[in-house]
Amino acid sequence: MGRIIAVANQKGGVGKTTTSVNLAASLAVAEKKVLLIDFDPQGNATSGLGIDKRSCNGIYHALIQEEDIRSLMKHTELRFLKLVPASMDLIGAEVELIDSPEREFKLKECLKPIADQFDYIFIDCPPSLSLLTVNALVAADSVLIPLQCEYYALEGISEILRTIELIKAKLNPELKMEGVVLTMFDSRNNLAHQVVEDIRGHFGEKAFNTVIPRNVRLCESPSFGKPVILYDVQSKGAVSYMELAKEILLRDREAVKS
Ligand SMILES: Nc1ncnc2c1ncn2[C@@H]1O[C@H](COP(=O)(O)OP(=O)(O)O)[C@@H](O)[C@H]1O
Ligand SMILES: [Mg+2]
Predict the structure, then answer these.
(1) CB-side exposure of 112: number of CA atoms within 13 Å?
(2) From residue 166, how far is each of 21, 131, 134 by CA, in Å?
C-alpha cells in the first residue's frame, strides 16, 4: 500500500510546488510509482510538468463531477510519474463543496480506488488553509511542510500545526508529520544558517537533513515543462531533491524493518 503525502503550507512562495514536482520526479527516477495531484487552482505543478491546464479535465472533475480519477491521469516524460492536473474550475470547487455532505472527505473518496496502485501519491496544496487543504490533509497519511529559509520562516507555522492537530482530533487521527524541509537556502547569507539551526532546534528529527539550496535551475525548469532532473541533472537543485528522495526512501525502508 502506498503513502499519500500532502505538501502544505498556507504561505505562498515557500516551495510547495517545486518540492512536490521535483521530489515526485526524483522518486519516479528511482522507479517508485508516483502520482502527483495538482490541488492548487493556480495549476503550477501542471504547467511545470508540461501539461496545458486549459485543455484538460483535472482533479475538479473527480471531486465535483464524480469522474473516475483514473480517467484524469496524465502521463509525464517520466515513465513512473503520473499527474492529475488542476484545471481552472478548481477555483470554484470550494464554493461548490460547501453544501455537500462529507465535504471534507471528497478527495479521500476519490483516491480510494487508486491508493494501492502507487508507492507515493503527492498532493500539491494551495497557499491557504481552505477546504481544499483540509481535503488534502484528510486524504493524506502524512504532511510535508516546506519552509523558506528566511527570518520569517517560523512565522505562521503555528497556524498550520494547529490545523494539523485539529484535523487529527476530528477528521484524520492517523495523520502523521512527514517532516519539514527547508527550501531556498542561500549559504552566503549568515541569517540562513541561523534559520537552519532554529528549525532543527524546533523540529528535531522531523526536520529533514537535506536542505534545498536556492538554485536558478529550479526556477527555470518549469518554463520548459520539466522537473529539474530532466532539465539539468547535475544542478544543485536536482541533486538536492534526489537527496531528499533518498532520505525518504531510507526512512521508509527502516520503517518496514522495524
Ligand atoms: N530552491 C529554490 N531556488 C530558487 N528558486 C526557487 C526554489 N524553490 C522555489 N523557487 C521559486 O520560488 C517561487 C515559489 O516557489 P513555489 O514552489 O511555486 O512555491 P509555492 O508552491 O509554495 O507557492 C517559484 O518561482 C519557484 O520557481
Ligand atoms: Mg504552489
Answers:
(1) 7
(2) 28, 13, 10
Render pLDDT for 70-118 as a digit per residue (tens, 0 to 9): 999 999 999 999 999 998 899 999 999 999 989 999 999 999 999 999 9
Q: How far apart (Å, rounded) are the C-alpha atoms in residues 213 and 187?
A: 8
CATH number of 3-257: 3.40.50.300
Nearest CA owner, ligand 1 atom 3: 214
214 lines ligand 1 (CB under 6 A): yes
Most confident of 13-17, 155-159, 187-191, 194-198: 13-17
> Smallest Cα–Cα separation from 18: which of 156, 144, 107?
144
pTM for this prediction: 0.97
Query: Is residue 153's pLDDT more than 90?
Result: no
Measure 11 CA to ligand 2 centroid, in angstroms.
9
Distance between CA atoms of residues 149 and 193, nearest Å: 9
Residue from 160, 186, 219 whose mutation best tests the ligand 1 pocket (most atoms within 8 A of CB): 219
| Per-domain boundaries in the chain | 3-257
Q: What are phi and psi of 136, to 5 degrees?
A: -65, -45
Answer yes or no: is the C-beta of 219 below 6 A from any ligand 1 atom.
yes
For residue 161, the one-letter residue type is L
Task: State if residue 13 touches ligand 1 by the CB under 6 angstroms criterion.
Answer: yes
> Mean pLDDT across the chain, nearest whole number?
95
